[in-house]
Amino acid sequence: MSEGDGDPLDAAVRSLARLIGSTPGPVRRARLQHGDLVVEVEWPEGTPAVAAVPVAPPVEADAGLHYVCAPMVATLYLAPSPGADPFVSPGDRVVPGQQVAILEAMKMMIPVEADRAGEVVKVLVPNATPVEYGERLIALAVSED
C-alpha cells in the first residue's frame, strides 16, 4: 500500500474504492484486511452498492457515438485542479487509456480514462457535478485508428 501519506487506513480505503469501482457489476459485500486493520462494507440483499442508472434509448443523433461513463458514484472534475485547463475539450482526439476526467469519492481521486480512440464530440456533465454509476460523461466519435 504505497499510496497516500503513509496512513494505512487511507491506503486501505483507496484500494477498496478502486476495487469496487473496477467491478463490472453491483457489489454486495467488500472486505479489505491489512494486518490488524479491517475495512468491511456490506449492503442488504437486493440493494446493490451502486445502482445502475437506466440508459435512455439512443436517438438518431447518437449513431456512431461511444460514451465514456462513470465507473462509480462520485463528483466529476473535468480538470486536474481548479483553474487548470480541462483534460479534454470538444474536438480533442483521445486514445484508449488517456485520462479524460477525474472522480472524487470520499476524498479519493480516481482517474476516468477513455476506453476507445476517438474525437470528443461533447462533454455531457458540467465540472464539479455529482454523477451516478454508469452515467454518460463524454461523447466520442469513435475512430478506427
Structure write-up:
The strands form three sheets. The chain has a four-stranded antiparallel sheet, with no helix packed on it. The chain has a four-stranded antiparallel sheet with strand order 7-6-4-9. Helices cover 10% and strands 36% of the residues. The longest helix is centred in the N-terminal third of the chain and has 14 residues, at 8-21. It starts with 7 loop residues before the first helix and ends with a strand. It has one helix spanning 8-21; strands spanning 29-34, 37-42, 65-69, 74-77, 93-94, 99-105, 108-113, 118-123, 129-131, 136-142. It contains one helix and ten strands. The protein is mostly beta strands. The model is unreliable at 48-60 (pLDDT under 50). A hairpin with a 2-residue loop joins strand 1 (29-34) and strand 2 (37-42).
What is the count of β-strands? 10
**How confident is the prediction overall: mean pLDDT?**
79
Q: What proportion strand? A: 35-45%
Tell the overall outline.
elongated
Helicity, as a percent range = under 10%
Distance between the termini: 37 Å
Oligomer: single chain
Individual helix count: 1
Major sheet size, sense and barrel closure: 4 strands, antiparallel
- Walk across the major sheet and give the strand order: 3-10-8-5
Rounded to the nearest angstrom, the radius of gyration is 17 Å
Q: Structural class of the secondary elements? A: mainly beta
Uncertain stretches of 5 or more adjacent residues: 48-60
